Amino acid sequence: MSKTEEVVSSSGRIQSFFRDFSFHRLTHPSADDVFEILSTIFACSAIVIIVLTAIVLIRGSFQAVSTFGVGFITGVNWNTTLGQESYGMLPYILGTLVTSGIAIGIGIPVSLGIAIFLSEMAPTSVRAPLSQVVELLAAVPSIIYGFWGRLVLRNWIVNYVEIPLSNTFGSVPIFRGSPHGYDILMGGLILAIMIIPTISSISKEVMMAVPSSQREAAYSIGATRWETVRIGVLSYSRSGIFGASILGLGRAIGETMAITLVIGGALGPDALPTSLFIPGQTLASLIAGQYYEAEALQLSAIVGAGLVLFGLAVVINVFAQLMVSRVLKLHAGAVE
Amino acid sequence: MTYTSRRIKDKLAYSLGLFCLAVAIVPLASILVEVVRNGISTISWQFLTSVPGVPGETIGGIAPAIQGSLLLIGLTSLFGVPLGVLAGVYLAEFGDNKFGRSVRFLNDVLTEFPSIVVGVLIWVLLVVTTHEYSPIAGAAALSIIMVPIVTRTTEESIKTVPNSIRDAAMALGIRRWRSTISVVLNTAKSGVITGVLLSIARISGETAPLLLTIFGSNFFFSSWNQPIDALPIRIYRDAFLPDSISHQQAWGAALILILIVLTLNVGVRVATRGRYGSSRSRM
Predict the structure, then answer these.
(1) Is residue A245 within 8 Å of A112, Cβ to Cβ?
(2) Residue of B nearest to A295 (CA)
(3) pLDDT tens for residues B47-92?
(4) In terms of Cα–Cα distance, which of A151, A267, A256, A190 is closest to B211?
(5) Prediction ipTM score
(6) In this complex, do A141 and B124 lie within 8 Å of one another by their Cβ atoms?
(7) The model's pTM
């Protein structure tokens, strides 16, 4: 194979397959053709699944969306009485956004601290083992986070965070309600713990991809270690860290089991997240809690909740993947 | 700004970093300690081999859950591994074009998909239409979660195979498909196995899609169109019960689950130390 052919073959085998297409090749495919076609078909599975999900969710939620119109998104009711059925997703959309907001509000600063510490400050010999320990957090199944959150963390949070806050600021609307630990704040906190490994490990990767000449330049003008991080590293990896945070947000929005176990499972107008200390509901926990024996309109409403979640997840993840991969590619190029 | 104040700032940043690390490690330590402490007192031979008892009265065992989890892992790997590996081969060997790049991108997006959405998809397609929760539906949902992970790791490990090996196979006159499978894939074997093991670790802990597809049960597998149990589902059902005997059962199930997941993760990390670093942290 000559050099030019190789370039063509690697950059456009599909195109060349169609260009060289002949009836003979169709009736007598070589083993190589079969292999290539087969692996191409298998590779399409990602596309097929995403498209299939969109179609199935749109068709499945059609009944609810056509019955309630815009009210399906802006309504607050959850009435399953036959004849008066009414479903609105606003409380759960807001619940998802508020819990995820708490999660990234706490998760991003902590993750950044970890990433900076592990890529720039810790003694070299402990960096790898400590990174592995943080990554183990990502391996713990979400159901175990939820169970631990319900039985262990909830007691700590109620006694050391919620009761003091409630006693001090009880009159402020967002601290209204009696703190019992099955609430919005608890949901946000468990999500924060769960997204820390995601954000910190990607941010660490992005920081480690910063060319060492950046650090050397800062050190050579007499900067301290922290100043080197701030001037040389952070300013350089800003968009990658942003992408990592968005990816963490995506995880928080879709997380189901842990949050279902601690958020309290409110329905209807009660589920509107008006205070940190009242039970709430997210889109994901709504599906997990209400799918059982759902019929007709309620089933359609639950699929509709899935559709909203799907839409949020696709938008967030496409955006985040674009940010992270572009930054890592850019930096890999700069290092070479 | 004086030198002293800059030194203090530097020290402050260092301590803040250390503090953040502690914030992440304390929950991990607490989870491990609680699961082991509460789980170990529960686990006995009888606990591992019998069916669950009456909630609130007897603890019984979690054998159906263990059986269900193993069945699902086996069934899912049967669909998921060949599909994921071949898709990874495509991306690495033929995927250096526009189509390949889009597939790779969508594959990454699919990896980050909320698993409950996958559950809703299979629930609508296989459960609502047949009115039956089944192991098949569970395995279908888990396959959708497994395939993108296997695809990604397969691609990354095949890309580490030097071109000289492909050239050598070609020089011997070996067909491309044959050389890809017996030479390239064989060279990249350890990376592919790593990916498969990590994806198994991931799916054994998945709960949300199983809730909508296998539902959970107190009995052993009986037929392909009946609900089965699985370890995460057992923990979920127990967690909502108010009594401490059910919670005890859940701690036992959690210990078994965390042993499976962490053994796979730590084992793979120790075995492949220093290799395939970047592909793993994204999962």
Answers:
(1) no
(2) B128
(3) 999 999 888 888 999 999 999 999 999 999 999 999 999 999 999 9
(4) A256
(5) 0.92
(6) no
(7) 0.90
